[in-house]
């Protein structure tokens, strides 16, 4: 399935989720999707994105480990249905939006947490969502630099 369709399905499911457990499941799904998309971009994406894409994949995997793993069958894990990423910029913009929504949802869960363990799990998941979003934003920046035909700042040799 196309990455955009999976991201949109994730966004809709997150928006419909009302109880904390359902929200955490959708946050987990979001990070699993980021892991899968990052892996795809690292292998077959634009060369200037590959390092950050690998980082996104690693963060997504680490974030999935932070959260209580949902009891889902393989067929219920959206990321397992990823077959193509499509346009990298479009996918990254959608992931940016998804992670903004994930952060907001996690703040809501953390604020209502009666258990200190759930609160801290949410704080760690918020940090992971922020890190995933940072990776996505860096990849978008690199695409913009490439589109303008400018050299990367650290590859530009200036006078000494």
Task: Give me the secondary-structure topology.
Layout: H1 3-16, H2 20-44, H3 50-66, H4 88-112, H5 116-148
Helix pairs in contact: 1-2, 1-4, 2-3, 2-4, 3-5, 4-5
What is the number of strand segments?
Answer: 0
> What is the CATH-assigned architecture?
Up-down Bundle
Helix content: over 70%
How much of the sequence lies in strands comes to under 5%
Structural class call reads: mainly alpha
What does this entry look like structurally?
The chain has 160 residues and is an all-alpha fold. It has a single domain (3-147), classed as Ferritin. It contains five helices and no strands. The chain has helices at 3-16, 20-44, 50-66, 88-112, 116-148. Helix 2 (20-44) runs antiparallel to helix 3, helix 3 (50-66) runs antiparallel to helix 5 (116-148) and helix 4 (88-112) packs antiparallel against helix 5. The radius of gyration is 17 Å and the shape is globular. The model is unreliable at 155-160 (pLDDT under 50).
């Amino acid at each position: 399935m196309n990455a955009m369709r999976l991201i949109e399905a994730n966004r809709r499911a997150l928006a419909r989720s009302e109880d904390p457990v359902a929200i955490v499941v959708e946050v987990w799904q979001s990070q699993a999707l980021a892991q899968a998309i990052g892996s795809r971009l690292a292998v077959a994406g634009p060369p200037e994105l590959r390092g950050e894409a690998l980082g996104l994949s690693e963060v997504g995997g680490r974030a999935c480990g932070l959260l209580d793993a949902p009891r889902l069958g393989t067929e219920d894990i959206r990321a397992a249905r990823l077959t193509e990423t499509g346009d990298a910029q479009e996918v990254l913009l959608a992931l940016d939006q998804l992670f903004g929504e994930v952060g907001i949802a996690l703040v809501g869960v953390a604020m209502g947490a009666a258990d200190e363990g759930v609160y801290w799990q949410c704080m760690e998941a918020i940090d992971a969502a922020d890190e995933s979003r940072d990776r996505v934003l860096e990849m978008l920046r690199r695409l913009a630099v490439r589109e303008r035909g400018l050299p990367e700042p650290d590859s530009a040799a200036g006078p000494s």
